[in-house]
Each structure stands twice: as structure tokens, then as C-alpha cells.
Fold Salicylyl-CoA 5-hydroxylase.
Amino acid sequence: MRVAIIGGGPGGLYAAALLKRLDPTREVTVWERNAPDVTFGFGVVLSDETLGGIEHADPVVYEALQEHFVRWDDIDITHRGVRHRSGGHGFAALGRRRLLGILQERCRALGVGLKFSAEAPHPDVLAAEYDLVVAADGVHSTTRDTYADVFTPQVTTHRCRYIWLAADFPFDAFRFEIAETEHGVMQLHGYPYASDASTVIVEMREEVWKAAGFDEVAPHESIERCAKIFPDALRGRSLHSNNSTWTTFRTVVNACWSHGNVVLLGDAAHTAHFSIGSGTKLAVEDALALAACLQEQPDVPSALAAYEEERKPVVASTQRAARASLEWFENLPLHLGQPPRQFAFNLLTRSRRVTHDNLRLRDAHFTEAVEREFGCPPGTPPMFTPFRLRGLTLRNRVVVSPMDMYSATDGVPGDFHLVHLGSRALGGAGLVMTEMVCVSEEGRITPGCAGLYTGRQAEAWRRVTDFVHGQAPGTAIGVQLGHSGRKGSTKLMWEGMDEPLPHGNWPLVAASPLPYKPGSQTPRQLSRAQLTDIREQFTAAAWRAARAGFDLLELHCAHGYLLSGFLSPLTNRRTDAYGGSPERRLRFPLEVFDAVRAVWPAERPMTVRISATDWAEGGTTAEDAVGVARAFAAHGADAIDVSTGQVVAEERPEFGRSYQTPFADRIRHEVGVPVIAVGAISSWDDVNSLILAGRTDLCALGRPHLYDPHWTLHAAAEQGYEGPGVAWPAPYRAGSRRPQTGRTDAPKPRLTLGG
């Protein structure tokens, strides 16, 4: 096999060494446009996991790396003159030139052909002459550009400028330092990579960079200014450059990683923000996977398919974590008002890969100090601390999220709702929410939706609230009121979500006469008189909800239903007083809120669920959502339930663990209103992390409560918590300890006896 590798960075060189070592008969050639010692940046951080893979695949390289690694365990975070240290993290770093030298030496020893200061031939030429072409030519990959119609790359440029520099002394920890300057917030990321040197990255928002004049000064003056901004971290010393320039980070994602016998590797295929230190790590792991797949598969096409199948999910997960970290730093000013220790915890858990429980294992002393400052009594996880909304005190921070069950008859909740909501109330959550309860027959989503537009329905709901208050004392139950708008008259979810009914349809109304998707019914635009009628339907339903005994009322202004349809510019095309500017689009939802608040008991809280983004071009943005939340808070909303999307059918959500939480975080800090976070929050560790970091006040979980009605009780048992934040119903107390299982720790055989 003849292998051509374009790019002599760590990924390309390591791939070359592995491919040659695994099969010495291979002819492997590397082209690198720069000289052997020319590189960008200074230090490289590798995880223990990556090093384990290197040790297994090539002990020679591993041993050479070991000789030069600088290792440390601590992270220091300095904010407003206060430094907090968290230990137990485990890092290993070395100089980038040293890493390249080790890999170049290994390649030469194995017989790899290295061509430095040489442009690689055109990919078409290499693909014709070689059996395999590995494109490891970096973030600006010409190979990727050549076959862009096949790889279909998406390159996203982000909002911060950064410069990669070095200091001539070693930090004793991974260091984050925040500087609040007259021009805006700037941050330093630093770590040691040799016994006498550290990498220093200075980063700031584009507008701060311009306000500080960095766009107008020479490179040497930029570097001098950076050193003066962080004198304490740098001990008054200067910074050094390696042809460093200010740049913006670009996230690279490719739909496809191979074309014929050409395959992408490392930054050519994907990038992950430097704040989680994954660029070189991913490239090295790509090389390991590619080499393994070539050994395991019968031919090159099969190997490349297996490589892509193996690596894509891993890379996507890393990119989600990197994106969360990147956006946290982009929005750093949101968190500056936090107490320094909570700020440090927030920073450490920003990517969602380090969590409350994980950090407790690494540094229990630090984590317990954050908990004490937050107000956690001894032995109390953050999720089991109480929270007050108006006259209602929730005993813990867990909410059973509203989930449509489509199981009512003529809008009347029956035995199913009693068991469904009753079992989840017994399961320990602080607040159990109903599904969206419709304010009129025409406002239903499906024929199976529950309502509060008749006295019979209210009586049926009273049966549910009486059960919750009587059998699960301490658990609150809330009702979510809404109107389907243009998303009504559809089949039950399991029969065809958002699909129109085959017969028995009812007419739809909406802010504007726009169908939800092709084939959907076109709604009528609401007249002023009809708006008044619907507002009165909401107030009548709220009055019945109060009589039915609900503790909290939530107004559903999300997910493309009627009130949400007024808020989004994609669904509100009106030209009257209820359309156009954001203030006019808010007018009707606020009128409904005010009318409901007027009849809802003063001591009981009201929340509002919003879609904080439409995930579609031209729709509601995160900035818009802050304005929407601020308006509802000004009108008396006690909390904002922050969801996203489901407003237009052509949405493109960015799914991932806790993916909607940053929207709640932003609203909480910019508006100063309590928030409920939702969206793929699936573990009690996530709940503890989000609450202790100050990103949310309450966490609403849906699917986990479908999987386990007693999710909160089990979360308490798994954490060994038995305090007032959760209570096992007396008949269930015998199950408050995890059942025993069969042994799995049998001694392994030590001797093999011959026959």
C-alpha cells in the first residue's frame, strides 16, 4: 500500500508512524509546507485517555513523550482579585516543537518519507498515484476545499478574538484570570508546557478587542499590552510571540469525511475550541482509529467507512462540549456578579463534562465550600435545597415537566391522569406540572387533550390535586394553560405527530393565516373581537384552575401554539397593533397574562414558558428572548420556563445534553428573574451542577420521569440523602434503599493447570 499524507502536524505525523509501524511494507510519505521546526502555538495538552491509547499503539513514542511531559493537577481561577484553586484534575503537557520533533524522529526511524518545505501535489494527483491519501492539512485545509461539494463543510466563525503567546516561567496550575477593563472583559488561559515556559492565550469579545485598539496597533505592541493587562498572573514578566496574530476561532464540521481514497483527519475534519484543549487530542485519536480500521477492514473503502462511523459520534460529543465552553467565555460578563467561588465552579463545569459529582471526586473540599456558600445544609445536594416563588415554597428544585398525554375524553382528565400525575407526585419532585391544559374546545391540539373550559373538567382536576395534596404532602402541583393556535386539530402523537386529522377537524385560528407545515390546515387570522374572546377563555380557565386547587399556573407562550405564534416574527405577519415590532408582537400575550394574573390568587405564583429561539433564520433569537422575558417579568411573572423551538417546522435545533440551558442562564442573569431550565437534563448530577453553578433555579425533566416516576426519590437514595428536601411516602419507605444485586466481584483465576 502507498500512503500519501498531506500535513506534517501531530495528527499527520502520528498517522504516518502508526501506519508504517503496523505494516513496514507500506510506503508512507508526508508532505509539509513548512520547515520541520515551524509551528503555531507553544504547548500541547494531552489527556490520560489519549496517552493510554498512544502507549498501547506505540510504546516508543509514549516513552519519548513521558520524558518531556510537565504534569500538574490544579486549576486556578482568579476573579475580582480572589483566587480559588481546584485540584485533582490531572494534566500533561509538552512543547509543540518537542512533540513534532519526537514524531518526526519516530517517522524517520520507521522509514517514513518526510518532505518539508514542500507543497503536496494536488489531491487529484495523489489520489491517482496512491492507495490512500490522508488530508491532515489543518483548519484551512485545501483538500477539504477541493472536494467541498462532497465533504460539505460548515465553518462557523465565533465572537471572540484571541492570540497565542508564551511566558518564560511555568505556571503551577492551569490558570484562568479575568480582567475587567475600561474597554470590557478580557480573559487569560495559561498552562505550563516545560520547566521554564507556559502557554498564555489572551481572549476577548470582538467589540472589546476593537475598543481596546488592538485592531490598530503593531503585533509587538499588542503583546506588550496583553502583559500589562495581567501583571499578577504573569508576575510582571513579558510575553513572547511565535509569529502570533489575533484571530477568531472557527468551528469546522464536515458532513462526510472521505471521498474515494481521500480521508480527512484532525482539524481538516473538525475543530474544537482550545478552552477544552482538544485539538491535538482529537487529531491523535483520529490517527489511532484510522490505523486500527485499516488493520481490521478488508479494503480501504471499508476502513474509511468504519473510521468515520467510529469517530464521528465521539467528535460530535467533544464539539458539543467545546461549543458550550466557547459560548460560556463569549458570554462571560453574564457571570461576573457571582461570588468568586461559585464563579469558579461555574467555569469548571461550563462544558458539562466536569459535573458536580465528578468535581466532588476530584476535589471534595472545594465542592463542599461552594455548597456551603450556596446555602446547602451539610449533606444536602443542591437539588434538595428549597426554593420560594411568591407564597409557594418548593421543597426541592425538581420539576416534572409538562408533557402532553393525549388521553382525555372530551377534555376531561380521567383515571390515567390521576395515576400519571399522582405517581409522579409520590415520586418526590418539588413541583409536578400538568400537560398543556386547553382553554377551549377549539384550542385543543388533538381530540385527546385535556381542558379547563367546563365545570366537569374542573371537578376532574380537583380529584387530581386533592390526591397530590393528601397523599404527597409537600409536593406542589401546577397547571399549564394554553391554546393550540395553528398547531391544533391533529392526530394523537403516536398516530402521527402534527398530522391533520383525517376527519372531524375543527377550524383553527392564529396570529396570521400561515399553516404549520405543508399539508396542515391554514388558520384564520384572529380579529380584535376574537382576541377578546380568547383572553376571556384564558381567564375563565384560570379561575377554574384556582377553584380546582392548583398551586401554580403557567402560561404557555412557547412551541408555536397560539400565544407563541404572536411572539415570533416567523409566525406573526400582522400589520395592526398586534404585529410588527417586538413590542407589538408582545401585546396580546401580555394582555392575556395580565388578565389571568388578575383572577389568579395573589399568593400563588405564575410562570411563563417561552421558546427562547426558533432555531430558524429570521426567527426569535436569544437576544429577543431576553426582551420577552423582561416584559413578562415586568408584568409580574414569578419565573420564566425557558424552552426552545417547535415554532416552525423548518427548525434546525442544536440538540445535546442540557442544550437549552444556556438560554435560561442568559435570561436569569440579564433579566434577574428566576428561571426553569429544560431540555435533555437527564441525571441528578446535571441538576446539581446547573443549580450550584447558578445557571438555573429549577430544573424541569420530562422523559426521565416517564422512564422512572420515582426519579427524584431514587436520586435522593443514590446520593444517600434523607433530609427534608424529599420524603418517601410511608408505604414506600421499605424501598428507599437500592435493592441488592448478584455478586460481580468473584476472584479471577490465577493458575492454568495442564490436563
Observations:
- The chain has 25 helices and 28 strands.
